[in-house]
Amino acid sequence: MSDQPSDPQSGQPSDQPSDESRSARPPLADSIRAKMEEYDVDRHLGDLASTLEGAVRQGVAKAGSLVHEHKGDIDRLLEKAVGVVDRHTDGKHADRISQVRGSLERGVDRIAEQRDAGPDKGPAAGPDAGPDAGASDVPPSNG
């Protein structure tokens, strides 16, 4: 005979646990909750979130530094791209191209502002920033 309870109407084994076995086991949610508490999952998730947040902040600061450092190259690339597109379209879309360029320049500027910026620091005010750390050696864009 099988260990599975059978369906009284069909005589076939049932996939449903019997009332006896259901009451012997705690509900699945309770078991999961107990294991989460046992392994201190909340604390580990908090630690992971904190670590990831720090890594993202470092990445954003690094990207900002690189963009700031290469702002001239980026501006030249945008100028070249605008020229090529404008020539290929015979100037038909000059207004739209100008709008897109302005949006790109503003985006690049926003990324550059993120260098070494922390929650209570301004742009480029890192711990090893010099006296003119906030001063930009890049002229403002005309977009």
Explained architecture:
This protein has 143 residues and is an all-alpha fold. The protein has a domain at 26-113. It is built from five helices and no strands. The chain has helices spanning 19-24, 28-38, 41-69, 71-88, 94-113. Helix 3 packs across helix 5 and helix 4 (71-88) runs antiparallel to helix 5 (94-113). The longest helix is centred in the middle third of the chain and has 29 residues, at 41-69. The N and C termini lie far apart (83 Å). Residues 118-143 have low confidence and may be disordered.
Helix content: 55-70%
- Determine the N-to-C terminus distance: 83 Å
Categorize the overall geometry: elongated
How many helices does DSSP assign? 5
Quantity of strands, as a count: 0
Mean pLDDT: 79
Largest sheet: none
SSE order, one letter for each helix or strand:
HHHHH
Question: What is the structural class?
Answer: mainly alpha
Low-confidence stretches: 118-143
Report the portion of residues in β strands.
under 5%
Q: Gyration radius, to the nearest Å?
A: 31 Å
